[in-house]
Amino acid sequence: MMDLKEAICELIRLTSTDLPAGVEKRLREAANREEPGSAARLAMDTILANVDMARKNSTPICQDTGTPIFFVHYPSGMDTGALTAQIRSAVELATQRSTLRPNAVHSLTGKNSGNNLGNDTFPTIHYTAIKEDTLTIDLMLKGGGCENVGAQYSLPDTSLDAARDLDGVRKAVLDAVHRAQGDGCAPGFLGVAIGGDRDTAYAASKEVLLRDLDGRNPDETLNQLESRLTQDANEMGIGPMGFGGKTTVLGTRITCLYRLPASYFVTISYMCWAYRRRKMTLTAGQVTYE
Amino acid sequence: MTIELRTPITDDAIRSLKVGDTVLLSGVVVTARDAAHKWLADAFIHPLQPPSPQEQATLKELKAVLDRGVIFHCGPVVTGLDTRQYRIVAAGPTTSMREEPYQADVIRLFNLKGVIGKGGMGQKTLDALHASPAVYFHAIGGAAAVIAQTVTEVLRVHLLELGVPEAMWVIHVERLPVVVTMDSHKRSLHDQVRAQSRRALDRLLK
Ligand code: SF4
Description:
The structure holds two protein chains of two kinds. By secondary structure, chain A is of the alpha+beta class.
């Protein structure tokens, strides 16, 4: 197998330092909606200056470089054990180069491993085998502040008057946005999974955040719910950083999973404004990034 | 209008600040997050055993820079660890609420005039801000590169054995952009926004 350590290290560098253009565009639009001189505007202007500077200097956009989450689609038959080893050494190398902050902490001793490696679960790697002869690696850096405000609801939820239907889903998601206030570094993005069990739902609520920002949900009902949720969330006026303001949520993505008859989970992953995700593709020995 | 402040900060300057004010902060600040706060609490605030001479020496040095000074909830990315030519390359705020159990005591221990972080803090800290007086400065979460660029010098590092993010970095900043979200008059912008967004949520849930 080809040595991809440097190529993956470059994927990590791009993700950590260079925010995707589509995300930046939404941030710029949000900045222009806030009152000049307001705390919300100061927040947005600082964020935009920060995005610029990180790209120029090739430094991390946010000091919390988060949990590196890799979604790998590999040509079936490929040796994923070898790929895992390469991903892990690329993470270690990126940490040495200060593209990533050492972020893996032992839960009992509190000791930081210093190299972003911990057991088999840090970093997170999801594998899916595909028929094509192309390897794609999507990387998302998921910060702790926004991860902490993620939430899972089990419907029906009488305190919210939320039944097992799409209006119940809407109520659960809005409650989660209210609870989060600015703590997930608003303005952010919502990844929502309907159904599943507790663990598949959280994974799916993150993976759905990889979907094209400007694309439509193939399911028209969910497509409408996505727009409605973004609009309703912004009506709460929580604003950038929770300072109060017009934009709290920049976009919503929903996915649907099968569930047990007895369960109806609504799972929300909150992604902060530093929505760091990049893709690397390897075809015929050629590596490209987007 | 944006207000310019420099550490050490006077009580009068603190009392004149109110929630929603935008501030450019300059002078010495010290980073401290979970492990540092826990260490301060265990070694000096509720000690089970007397602090070691080394711990006492560290406290003395910290007191010299934190009297009327400012603490920053931040776990930075730092280069130059091998040569000790430290440079802060990323330095955004971290969630402050985790320090709520300790913050009031730490404000008193050092006579702090400000705490920089994100997300705001609870009633115990709000009361301590009133008593001190001091304020809570909300930095822009995730704006690590912009904030790192306001760091003009790394003066010292304490507790590096806790790891880079948890160590206490004594840094000099120039014009760090922050918003006052908890003032010394017991007002909290977080409480105001929470209450107002709660009313909107109730309407939306109908
Ligand atoms: S929530 Fe996001 S922007 Fe905020 S500190 Fe964490 S990683 Fe950075």
